[in-house]
Write a structure and sequence with these properties.
About 60% of the residues lie in helices and about 0% in strands. It has about 270 residues and is mainly α.
């Protein structure tokens, strides 16, 4: 193992212990994801796997742990292979984020179609997954919207379907999160969306939000481009710094190895 040259402490972030926080965060994410996954019914979880927040937490947590682990051990042990792995993984993550942003901007129509597909799928599985149900309710209340394109999209859900042979008590209804709320309303009426799909837009607009969440989400994105850009920059800068400093550390280790080899070759030289 080559001895370290005098100078600042090695490590992709300057201090080896700076990896402890990302490692702890990644382990907490995995633990929370596993707990949430185990607490669900297997049938409900499999029905909406693509938008399951628990699966997302587990995958992101594991990837974050592996990448941070490579950087931490590589820095502590001055292992060039692990540091290269850390640097390459960060570069891949950064490029994927950049590509996703560029493609989403260039192919905005296709991105909108994909978002519509995800929202419609979420509407279909609204009652199958409690996490998904809470997420949809939160989104509809925050964006003051209902359904994907309109409130009638809730007819895609088997419980809210408006067909005559639907035995559900929620037939032709919408979730309570679609309902207009008075400022002084203290108690939430969870049955306020009863029978709203049977009304036309003008009649229903007196009781619920009739506009869909897709347009509201697109408008929110357009109105908050600087905020989203700042968040993207805040995520990109630590990644770029990690890539840069890991490469600096790799070069320092290589220089140390070369210096030791040089010293060994000239140890017998009286003029050295």
């Amino acid at each position: 193992m080559p001895r370290r040259l005098a100078g600042p402490p090695a490590g992709p972030y300057g201090e080896d212990f700076s990896f402890v926080s990302p490692l702890m965060i990644s382990m907490v994410m995995v633990a929370v994801g596993i707990y949430a996954r185990l607490m669900k019914h297997a049938e409900a979880a499999m029905a909406c796997l693509a938008v399951d927040p628990a699966i997302l937490l587990i995958v992101v947590g594991i990837l974050m742990f592996l990448i941070t682990f490579c950087g931490c051990i590589g820095s502590l042990r001055e292992n060039i292979c692990l540091l290269q792995t850390f640097s390459i993984c960060l570069t891949i993550v950064f490029l994927l984020q950049l590509a996703a942003g560029v493609l989403g901007f260039v192919f905005s129509d296709k991105a909108r179609g994909k978002v519509s597909e995800i929202i419609n799928n979420a509407v279909v599985h609204y009652r199958d997954d409690l996490d998904l149900q809470n997420l949809i309710d939160y989104g509809q209340k925050e964006f003051s919207c209902c359904g994907g394109v309109s409130y009638k999209d809730w007819s895609q859900n088997m419980y809210f379907n408006c067909t005559a042979d639907n035995p559900s008590r929620e037939r032709c209804s919408v979730p309570y999160s679609c309902c207009l709320r008075a400022a002084d309303q203290a108690v939430i009426n969870t049955m306020c969306g009863q029978g709203m799909q049977a009304m036309n837009y003008l009649e229903a607009s007196e009781f619920i939000y009739t506009n869909g969440c897709i347009d509201k989400l697109v408008n929110w994105i357009h109105s908050n481009l600087f905020l989203l850009g700042g968040i993207a920059l805040g995520l990109a800068i630590p990644q770029l710094v990690g890539i840069l400093l890991s490469q600096i550390l790799i070069n320092q280790i290589k220089d140390q190895i070369k210096l030791q080899l040089y010293n060994q070759q000239h140890r017998a030289d009286p003029w050295f």
